Amino acid sequence: MTVNPQTETPRDRHLRRLRRQIDALERRLPVARSSLRSVVDGRLRYVRIPVALMLVAGGFLGFLPVLGFWMIPLGLLLLSLDLPRLRPWVSSSLVRLRRWAQLRLRSWAGRRP
Asked: How far apart are the first and last CA of the chain?
């Protein structure tokens, strides 16, 4: 897909970056590929928004059993698919998280005998 930089808006650029990060997650976690594809698909928007809001709200109750703070980033990721103002923040956070994970995996691989 070629993109004309003169007609591309920042909104389009952030959406493409977010999609690239989700594709990278799919490649890294092949087990979750079908689940991620169905969630990212635009047809589930009316289900995705309430689920994302419930995840964020449940994440603030992360001190309780079963609920956890892991729910906040997941809810924000789902919301960023529908809310363009969240996309730059979420996509840059995904990039930083992936880089951090790669560094950790490399350091752990170096420690093994």
From this structure: 45
